[in-house]
Amino acid sequence: MKNMAIATIVSSCLLMQGCLNKERVAHMPEAENQVITEDGRHFVTSGKGLAEIKNQNGQLVLDYIDAGCDAYNGIVSFDSHLLVVCADSALINARHTLISAQLEENTKPEMTELLELSNMSLPNGMTLTPDNNALLIADYLLLGRGKVSKFDLIVNEAGLNAQINDLNYLDIKQNVYSPNGLKFSGEDLYLTDFDYTSLSSRVMKISFDSGQYLNSEVLYEKVTILDDLLPTCGGVLTGDFLNGRLVFINSEGKVHRSDYQEFPGLSSMIWGQSPLFDDNTLVITERGIIQDSISPIGNQISAVDISNSTLQTVGALCQ
Fold it and tell me: I need a surface site. Which of 73, 148, 260, 264 has the fewest CB within 10 A?
């Protein structure tokens, strides 16, 4: 349904310029990633802050959460907890952490440090494993060897705890060079990865058997920088950060792209949920230019309504 809508948007843009009808939801400097919790709360991270989208007298506004970080990257919801990557901007001996909060209805989250992310250069995208017992974090090292690290998540009387399971869960041995976005669909892990040997970004599908790596497949590759992604409608939607485009790879491997720089610095996408957003609304974060938080290029959260005709045009297999 909402997943179907994503695919449609992309192909439509190829056929009809300006068909996406993008609307600005809110200004957010260096907007980065987002998650919708089980109870429908919509949180967004950025290079400058962490916030929740709220409806205030019929207007969508950002309610910022002070957690004392230099920058916020990946974000997931786990067992009524919010988990967020807190990145340190120091060039030497940077100390990155995983922060968390117990979510309570109608209450602003109070973020506290859960785990130091030692031996990670730039922790970025995150996702939960299919069994919901572990967390994967991408270590994004653009011109070096990155990795995906695995952390066990434990909830007991003392609350939520996290501990390292495998620092190099996925790396060069599994054809993963510098991962960024991570998302599971069933037992398959989809990720964006930068291959510094060819200066190209790839969308990859990694298959597992009972949590053990089987093989990897490159679904899409281009000389650019891809950010987050979303498996949907039998295919994969990803964000071309460098070219400001949505890219949809359908089940037949055919690629559809939106207009060039339609979403400057596109960093993530998610299907919006009621009551904040109408059905078939794709919510997009636009980071814009790295280290620029004031220009009108990006630095915002956008919304696009997607038509059924667009979905059909791009070959989206949606229910």
Answer: 260
Q: Which is nearest to 299 in space by CA: 53, 50, 29?
A: 29
The H or E element containing residue 186 is: none
pLDDT of residue 199: 93
201 CB-near residues (< 8 Å, 6+ apart): 192, 193, 194, 195, 221, 222, 223, 224, 225, 226
Inter-residue contact 97 to 86 (CB < 8 Å): yes
- Single-letter amino acid code for the residue at 299: N
Paired strand residues for 188:
185
Check: pTM over 0.90? Answer yes or no: yes
Residue 19, pLDDT score: 54
The pLDDT assigned to 15 comes to: 36
Find, among 102, 27, 33, the residue nearest to 297 by Cα. 27
Q: What residues of the chain score a pLDDT lower than 50? A: 1-18
Under 8 Å CB-to-CB from 105, ≥6 apart: which residues?
39
Block residue for tokens 């995208």: 125
Q: Using CA atoms of 40, 42, 43, 47 in order, give the dihedral in degrees to the nearest 10.
A: 160
Interatomic CA distance for residues 130 and 114, integer angstroms = 22
Do β-strands 134-139 and 147-156 pair in parallel, antiparallel, or remain unpaired? antiparallel
Supply 111's token pair: 């973020």
Q: What is the model's pLDDT at position 319? A: 63
Compute φ and ψ for 109, nearest 5 degrees: -60, 140
Tokens of 203: 């969308």
